[in-house]
Specification:
alpha/beta, 249 residues, binds S-adenosylmethionine, seven-stranded mixed beta sheet
């Protein structure tokens, strides 16, 4: 993506981070138990049906989209800011002959370019915490959904707000991060641990990572107009979960 399309510095950093990670993404985060369980929970919670039109926000290498298609014969539009993550996804789409089912586009979440009332469901997994202005994005996603449409946000339940010098904040975050680091080493080895460790430092320093608690996400959904907002947790990793929000109608 040209830097002109990616106007904010922190987004260029995020895009470059994922461009560099892309080749190892599926072998690192993609192999860790909590990520697989989170994807499964997003898929189950989306209640996607055959013929639904689904928006996968921050689709990356397509791990969520491909899991959705195992559940239903929906059609999916995946958008992402990283060309390299998308290149891997496009390769998988071609290899599996899914061109009729999935379209992937280079797009920033802050410039979602679709008509209002287009999608039956919108899903995202471990993406939206990369945004600084979350209310703006959620209001836009609300508009893109058809009345009655579901929005499922898969995220880590970690409130990273506050001062970097606050030791209580650091303790709160480390309690969550160790639940990423230990499974990373166990499930996917040293390289995955090193990747998740570097990621953790970015979370602590808020360098392109601005996580919230699931309750905080739920409050932003309600403010954006969503009704029936619920939180569900991943079975074996309680610090991961989804917020399910419905557009009235
Ligand atoms: C941790 S990956 C998650 C990918 C996929 N959803 C999954 O669960 O495997 C986060 C993805 O969000 C994308 N991303 C981050 N900020 C974005 C933005 N502003 N607009 C679009 N995509 C963004 C990154 O490029 C990356 O592919």
């Amino acid at each position: 993506m040209k830097n002109s399309l990616c106007k904010k510095n922190y987004k260029i950093t995020t895009r470059n981070w994922f461009n560099r990670w892309s080749n190892k993404y599926d072998q690192t985060l993609g192999r860790i138990g909590f990520h697989r369980e989170l994807l499964d929970l997003v898929v189950r919670s989306s209640k996607v049906k055959d013929c639904d039109k689904v928006l996968d926000i921050g689709c990356g290498t397509g791990l969520l989209s491909l899991r959705l298609l195992q559940k239903a014969g929906c059609s999916i539009t995946g958008i992402d800011i990283s060309e390299e993550m998308l290149a891997i996804f496009k390769g998988k789409i071609k290899e599996s002959g899914l061109e009729q089912k999935i379209e992937s586009r280079l797009m920033d979440i802050d410039s979602l370019n679709f008509k209002n009332n287009t999608f039956d469901a919108a899903v995202s997994s471990v993406v939206l915490h990369h945004l600084k202005d979350k209310p703006k994005a959620l209001k836009k996603i609300y508009k893109l959904l058809k009345p009655g449409g579901l929005f499922v946000i898969g995220e880590v339940d970690m409130d990273s707000t506050g001062s970097h010098a606050d030791t209580k904040r650091l303790q709160r975050m480390l309690r969550v991060l160790e639940q990423e680091w230990i499974p990373a080493l166990r499930d996917a080895g040293v390289e995955a641990f090193a990747q998740m460790y570097s990621n953790g430092i970015k979370h602590i320093l808020n360098q392109g990572e601005y996580c919230l608690s699931l309750k905080q996400w739920a409050a932003i959904c309600r403010k954006a107009g969503f009704s029936r907002v619920t939180i569900k947790r991943v079975p074996h990793y309680k610090c991961f979960g989804v917020v399910v929000a419905k557009k009235p109608g």
